[in-house]
């Protein structure tokens, strides 16, 4: 197996590109993909302040590392969601990396700062922990980015994540989600910060290689609530298709972005946006879900 670029010894074979790379040429390919994605979708440039959402897993650590290395003005953001040992370990990984590389990081602890407990809220509202957790994260990503004057919020979503999300959305024809699925979600309100996914053409495996080659510490464990998630089933199905027909995932995403997504745009535009009467953040209801969570948590500690 020879490296397709330098003809040296290949160490990683990428079936969908029918190409093997040596370590240095893999890093060259990886860098190029990220730079190309940022440029193609006008995600941000070197003058912009970018808030990078970090979970401590391989994808977000790879993103933080490459953007900092390429000279972008990045600040990491970690949210401690109170998920036992998983949260404690991931926070440690994030703090270690920031300290070692002299990078800025904003750390928020939802229990300590807002009195929020995703398990209690999940019971009280009869909603899954992931749905509560997802709402809290989305709110904080935007609020912190908006308050801090950031131009974009970057997440480490990879090709496998994007293809699995797309498959899930297509299976139930979630028009609203299909309209919003994109490597760039432009701001549609002055208080909504643009969301970007610079790694959307790179697979989980490629991100893993990137962190291993660069000796970046990351948390190997997944969140315990990710186990059994529908998205994992979709990833397995897509992996089987990919095995038989390399390039399926990338084609699925790129052809959706080029040919499919435009057909859902009018659904997206119909959503009426308001400002929360308590915190002023953008919502579709009078009081945003985050403020409702805080109110409910306070009532339940008072009683
Ligand atoms: S939503 Fe669910 Fe994730 Fe929150 S509870 Fe864990 S798995 S972290 S992306
Ligand atoms: Zn609010």
UniProtKB/TrEMBL annotation:
Coiled-coil parts of chain: none
The keyword Membrane is annotated on this UniProt entry: no
Cross-referenced PROSITE patterns: RHODANESE_3
Cofactor(s), by name: [4Fe-4S] cluster; Mg(2+)
Binding site for Zn(2+) 2: 276, 279, 288, 291
Keywords: 4Fe-4S, ATP-binding, Iron, Iron-sulfur, Magnesium, Metal-binding, Nucleotide-binding, Transferase, Zinc
Gene Ontology terms for molecular function: 4 iron, 4 sulfur cluster binding; ATP binding; metal ion binding; transferase activity; tRNA binding
Keyword Protein transport in annotation: no
A cellular component term, taken from the record's GO annotations: cytosolic tRNA wobble base thiouridylase complex
Domain Rhodanese as annotated: residue spans: 33-95
Superkingdom of the source species: Bacteria
GO biological process: tRNA wobble position uridine thiolation
Residue ranges of the TM segments: none
Residues that hold Zn(2+) 1 according to the record: 3, 6, 22, 25
Protein name, UniProt field: TIGR00269 family protein
Native organism taxonomy: Bacteria, Bacillati, Bacillota, Bacillota incertae sedis, Caldicellulosiruptorales
